[in-house]
């Protein structure tokens, strides 16, 4: 028989402890986000569909992106027990300098469209957290304004090679003058990928009003109020454009660029050079031999060629082929700190994240980006401890199995 009693008032009071109400709605929302997937859910609620789909979507049937994420999901960690993990060091080296966490913020276009704080918010978080940040050619904040927003951040400039080479030379000169540390050349966009979500949504820069956008705006009034009460949304490094994103890319980018053009690039940029968009072992060897300081194994987040190679699967072979002569980074499909740790264990020197911090930006501006870093850092530290390693340098193939 269970004996019952009248509850003691003091004990009952200790059990019923209500959490104090936080009047800050953004802080309340972000506090409930425990994963990047939670931030993605918040982002979908806070932004118009066309904006969310631009960030969330990929090319054609989105097979490349799904395969990349499924590869991370299929990994199997192999922990080592009874190791001293009382303290964990998450620092790594990127381009010969320390980064507080083993990832950087990837370059993303149209960032002020996701939230009007845009690139300035991202670089401020990068400065505070010791995470390098790459500003995109397609950015919506100027090279100089980003430098002013994060004067002590490690800043890289991402370059697409244009048909008008003088424009590219001007951008590189401005980046150098503003103190950008490295140039990141993206090489997987001879033409724009077919991003069908954008086409179906009638997505353009600046956003154009239609019956659909007006109805969507009624569901997201805060986003629209921010848009119309802040400086106009435009490309900071380009002339004004009224067409679709794909039309813009096709009109600007040079499909004739070859390996020989790296000599032209080196004549204009004498700092560290990162080549982003490597998808084969042969190309990794070629750009390493040409003097790249780092290669990014990437299929552009699945946004260019559908059915492209999964970048993570290239890591072991590329690392073995080029050793430490050129740093090997990887992106595409990374949605958790565990994903970051797995990539490092397979041989990557570092990783890059894009959608992960953009979901945070859409969910809560600068504070949302900070929350994304909190989530990733917590997951990285916890995963490392559970694997039995106390520093990034200890991670190796013995800690993960790639089916």
What's a quick, concise take on this entry?
Its cofactor is FMN. The protein has 403 residues and is α/β, with parallel strands linked by helices.
Give a verbal description of the structure:
With 403 residues, this protein is of the alpha/beta class. Helix 2 crosses helix 18, helix 7 (118-129) runs parallel beside helix 18 (355-387) and helix 17 crosses helix 18. It is globular. It has a single domain, classed as Aldolase class I (TIM Barrel). The protein is 46% helix and 11% strand.
**Rough shape?**
globular
Mean pLDDT level: 90
Uncertain runs with pLDDT below 50, 5 residues or more?
none
For the largest sheet, list the strands in their spatial order: 4-11-10-9-8-7-6-5
Helix and strand element order? HHHHHEEEEHHEHEHEHHHHHEHEHEHEHE
β-strand percent reads: 5-15%
Largest sheet: number of strands, sense, barrel closure: 8 strands, parallel
Helix content: 40-55%
N-C termini distance: 54 Å
CATH level-3 fold name: TIM Barrel
Please give the CATH class.
Answer: Alpha Beta
Number of contiguous helices: 18
Structural class: alpha/beta
Tell me the name of the CATH homologous superfamily.
Aldolase class I
User: What value does the Rg take, in angstroms?
Assistant: 22 Å
Number of domains: 1
Number of strands: 12
CATH architecture: Alpha-Beta Barrel
Oligomer: single chain
